[in-house]
Amino acid sequence: MDVVELDRIAVGEASRVVEAARDGDDGDWARETPCAGWDLRRLVAHMTAQHRGFAAAARGEGGETRYWREWTEEADPARAHRVAADSVLAAFAEPGVLEREFVLPELGGGFPGRTAIGFHFVDYVVHAWDVAAALGVRLRLADEVLRAALAVARRVPADPAGRGPGFAFAPALKVPEGAGPLEETLRLLGREPEGWPGTGV
């Protein structure tokens, strides 16, 4: 599978688990997530903004900060996320997208489309897991997809100076011998899966 198809699968799974969240006074949006300090509403607002930002980047408008703004006041976070997901998938399906330059402000500049979509892909494998972990549901991604995500995660620079608060990823954690591709990906990008049972790690 090419990176656009891999990304489509990861985004679809992220949407599935987001839509498993329930509203109400004691609903799921206030649940803690593996993203330190973020409840589920805040995490999904971030995911939605990233979809909008990457869609803008695919159109040559990634440098416009309005596309990356996060809105935590959405009345229906799952619907807002689905609309944004559909938008980014449509943008990535455009002819010639892999050869375009994507401006990604969080990552400090422009990147070839193929590389940028790879970033988006691994981010949504991880964020799909974040949401699944918060809700206690099992992630459904094929081994082929998880191995591809791991290949991208292994290329993410692990320099501590570029990890942590204010950066795209938390500091990398030690990967135990025998870890599967999802666990290794999560640990390389700063997640501790053992604290979040039930997601298939």
What is the structure about, briefly put?
The chain has a single domain (3-195), classed as Four Helix Bundle (Hemerythrin (Met), subunit A) (Up-down Bundle), CATH 1.20.120.450. Helix content is 46%, strand content 4%.
Describe the structure.
- The chain has 201 residues and is mainly alpha-helical.
- It has one domain (3-195): dinb family like domain (Four Helix Bundle (Hemerythrin (Met), subunit A)).
- It contains six helices and two strands.
- Helix 1 packs parallel to helix 4 (113-135) and helix 2 packs antiparallel against helix 4 (113-135).
- The longest helix is centred in the middle third of the chain and has 23 residues, at 113-135.
- The model has no long low-confidence stretch (mean pLDDT 92).
Strand order of the largest sheet: 1-2
- Please name the fourth-level CATH homologous superfamily: dinb family like domain
Task: Please tell me the CATH architecture by its name.
Answer: Up-down Bundle
Described by the principal axes of the CA atoms, the overall outline is globular
- Helix-strand sequence: HHHEEHHH
Blueprint (SSEs and pairs):
Layout (H helix, E strand, L loop, with lengths): L2 H16 L21 H19 L18 H16 L8 E4 L4 E4 H23 L7 H11 L27 H8 L13
Identify the notable features of this structure and list them briefly.
single chain, 201 residues, mainly alpha, Four Helix Bundle (Hemerythrin (Met), subunit A), two-stranded antiparallel sheet, 6 helices
